[in-house]
Structures are given as structure tokens and as C-alpha cells.
Amino acid sequence: MSEVTFNAFVVSLATTAAVHFGDMADPATGRPGPVNLEGAGQAIEMLALLERKTAGNLTEGEAAFLGRVLAELRRRLLDAHRERTGPVSPGEDGRPPAAATSSTGAGSRGSGRSRGLRGRLQPANNVRITFLGTGTSAGVPVIACDCATCRSDDPRDKRWRPSLALAFDDGTSVLVDASPDLRAQALRFHLTRVDAILLTHAHADHVLGLDDVRIYNFRQGGAIPCYGAARTLARVRRMFDYVFDPATPKGGGLPQLALRELAGPFSLGGATIIPVPLLHGTLPVLGFRIGAFAYLTDCNAIPDASWPLLDDLDVLVLDALRHKVHRTHFTVEQAVEAARRIGARRTLFTHMTHDLPHAATCDALPEGISLAYDGLELDVATAARDRLLVAGCQAAHLY
Ligand SMILES: [Zn+2]
Ligand SMILES: [Zn+2]
Ligand SMILES: [Zn+2]
């Protein structure tokens, strides 16, 4: 009997996927079996689950091997699916007709849509979004400022630094960015666990809360995967060098962060996360699309390759700093223009300065567009269409 190692276990699941793809003979019959993309998708989901559950407990070699195998299988699944695009007759392989799914917006939790391969790429679930912070890097009120917004009694005029919490139907809890206000946000919004962190970029207002996630490490055991572009992760490594320096004495309350470089769409919480390349001045940063929802903070330009990733959205969250022009952020007017072009059913602005009092600014915005505020919650469908995944992969060279 061959030695049981972690890599051998990964290979056995990968073999199952390969048999379902029709790339290998079925060990039971010695002959290639019928192509079963749903089965292949299931094996890939199991490997993805394994990756999540073992985060922080693998050797570097094991983690790299698992990452490579998963990336390869996901590419294979996309290719297989691309080969099948075009008219799909109802009932083929027991799958639903190609046009069976569309994003349904808030309120579709628990709908009984099919869970074939299409369903697996497009789970019929929702994600609950909580705005933990909607302010710019200084927050609102601004230190020592006595302007009307900073003195306002309207709770929507209190803005912590920008961050989102995502609660998926399967219980997975994800942070988008870790703001310097993370501790206060976690206490106020009862954020009891963090299974992963998505990083848009490494500016201080988006990552300085990373040290505070150590409490979640203690509570949950193990490292927390942090997904970001290579340049973002490199900067996080420099900013938090004490965290990643093996010479740092242990036991001093270090956060455990498992940095995961993004190279395209990936799965989390039973949903597909599509990184959306954006420009924040000259700095390339990422937004994220999840089903019918997109979060585009810190940007003042959307590259050509990213527009197709923003098609058919129920909820768009977009940077809108203030009215006065800025080198790295959309103004309200520019954000309205971008929002109109994207055409989401509902658009919420974020990353606002104290120049934008909530009520008065909302009153002046076009129908369907308003300012987000700290504590705002909404449910959005996590269904994603396949062509978005393909477009997401094609945009990968921009990451
Ligand atoms: Zn002020
Ligand atoms: Zn920034
Ligand atoms: Zn920012």
C-alpha cells in the first residue's frame, strides 16, 4: 500500500475529477467513463473545502501543491465549460436548460434552483453584506473638525474607515479589507468570526486592522487566508514585517495571516469571487464581484477589460469621495457617470469625506443612487454567470 500523505490525498481527489472530465480511465472499469462535469465540479469543491479547512496547518510545499492542483482543475473546468457553451438542450447530463438562471436580487434566499454544474458555478444562495465603514481614510468626523457634517447628529454621518463584512449562506464570514477601525466595527456589528479576508489594496485605511484579527485566530484556531494581488501582499508583508519574520518571538499575540495571491476568479463561501481590476490613480487595485454584487472602493478609472465584469448587477458599491476633483478617487459626479454606464439596479456610494452630508447629498442624487452608511445591511444573490468567469480570467493579466 502506498504511503498516506497529504499530497496523496490531494491526488486522489484530483484523480476523481480527472475521471469525471473523461481525462483518465475509470479505475473501476479500466475505460474512460461518461463525462460528468458535475462530478468534477464536486471534487474541485471538496479540494477547495480542504484548502479552507487546512489553512495555516500545511507545510509550504503542501500548500503550494494544493494551490497548483486547484488552479489547474479550475482552469480545466472552465475550459470544459467553454467547450459546452452555445445552445444547451434541456436535460443534457441531467442539467437544467442554459437559460435557467438569472440574478434575482435580494430576497431569493432558499429558492429551489437546480444544483447541477451550472448550479455549482452559480449557487442559488445569497450573501448578506454589512457596511462596516463607509468613510475615507480620515474617517468622519475628522479629528479636530467642527464642520456641519462632523457635528451632525445623523448616525449616517459617522463613517468609519472602509470595510465590508460578507456573511454567506453556508456560514462563511469574510471581511473585505481590514480597516484601522476593525476592533470598534467588530464590536458594534457583532462580527464573531472571520474565515477569510479579501484585500482591495494595501493603503493604510484598508489594512491597518490586520493586527486585530489575532483574536479570531485564537478563537477559531489556525491562520486566516488573506486574498489579494501580488503587489498588495508584498506590501502587507513589508508593513507587518514582525508578523512574517520567523525571528519574531512567538506568544506575543501575532496575527496568523495566510497570504494567497489572486490570479483570477476563485471560490469562497460556496460563491465565486471575481476580482475586478481597477485604477486608483496610477495604482492598480482590485474590486470584487460576487454574484449580482460588486464592491469597487478606491478607484478613479475602470479599465476596458473590467467593464464586462460589471454587467447585470443588482447592487453596485462605488467610490465617491467628494465633489472636488481628486487624483485617485471618483468624485460624486464621476461616480454618477460610471454608475449610469454600469447600470446596476441599485448603486451605493462609499469612501466619502465630510464634504458629503448624508441626507442632503442623497436628496441631490439621481434615482437608484444613494450614499451607503455604516451598519447598512443588504442581501444579494451570489449567482454568477459563466461568461463572467471567463471574462474574469481574461482580465487576469491586469492583476
Ligand atoms: Zn468636518
Ligand atoms: Zn486607497
Ligand atoms: Zn481608501
Question: Layout of SSEs?
Answer:
Blueprint: H1 6-21, H2 37-53, H3 60-84, H4 117-121, E1 126-133, H5 148-151, E2 163-168, E3 173-176, H6 182-188, E4 196-198, H7 204-207, H8 214-220, E5 224-228, H9 230-239, H10 241-244, E6 257-261, E7 266-268, E8 271-280, E9 283-290, E10 293-296, E11 315-319, H11 332-342, E12 346-350, H12 358-364, E13 369-371, E14 377-381, H13 386-394
Parallel strand pairs: 3-4, 4-5, 5-6, 10-11, 11-12, 12-13
Antiparallel strand pairs: 1-2, 1-14, 2-3, 7-8, 8-9, 9-10
Helix pairs in contact: 1-2, 1-3, 2-3
This protein binds zinc ion (ZN) (3 copies).
Percentage of β-strand residues: 15-25%
CATH class of the largest domain: Alpha Beta
Bound molecules: zinc ion
What's the story with the biggest beta sheet? 7 strands, mixed
CATH architecture of the largest domain: 4-Layer Sandwich
Assign the CATH superfamily of the largest domain: Ribonuclease Z/Hydroxyacylglutathione hydrolase-like
- By DSSP, the count of extended strands is 14
Q: What distance separates the N and C termini?
A: 44 Å
What is the mean pLDDT?
Answer: 85
How large is the count of helical segments?
13
Structural class computed from helices and strand pairing: alpha/beta
Q: Please indicate the count of domains.
A: 2
Radius of gyration, Cα only, in angstroms? 22 Å
Give the uncertain stretches in residue-range form.
86-124
Give a nutshell description of this structure.
This protein is of the alpha/beta class.
Question: Can you put this structure into words, describing what you see?
Answer:
By secondary structure, the protein is α/β, with parallel strands linked by helices. Helix 1 (6-21) runs parallel beside helix 3 and helix 2 (37-53) runs antiparallel to helix 3 (60-84). A seven-stranded mixed sheet has the order 6-5-4-3-2-1-14. It has two domains: 6-84; 117-398, Metallo-beta-lactamase, Chain A. The chain is built from 13 helices and 14 strands. A hairpin with a 4-residue loop joins strand 2 and strand 3. It binds zinc ion (3 copies). One zinc ion is lined by residues 141-142, 145, 147, 149-150, 354.
